[in-house]
Design brief:
three-stranded parallel β-sheet
Amino acid sequence: MEDAYETIKMLQELRTAKILTLGLNIVESISSFRELLSLHPSPFCNLVSLIIDSSMRKDACKVNMSVEARNFLLENSPSATFIMKI
């Protein structure tokens, strides 16, 4: 749980990002702590593009992204483009 909390804290520091690229491991890490995400509002209000890069994983087609993780990343940027690199 400490890793997920630190990851959320790090993502909050990137709140002014317009383009954000995240590795699949980060998305899966925060996805596994749904209750923690529900306590933190989405920090991204200027996001234009969210890119999830899973190209380094053999099992890239098996992405586990919770609704809470998606909301945390995109809720305050509803017009942001979501890109999944496989």
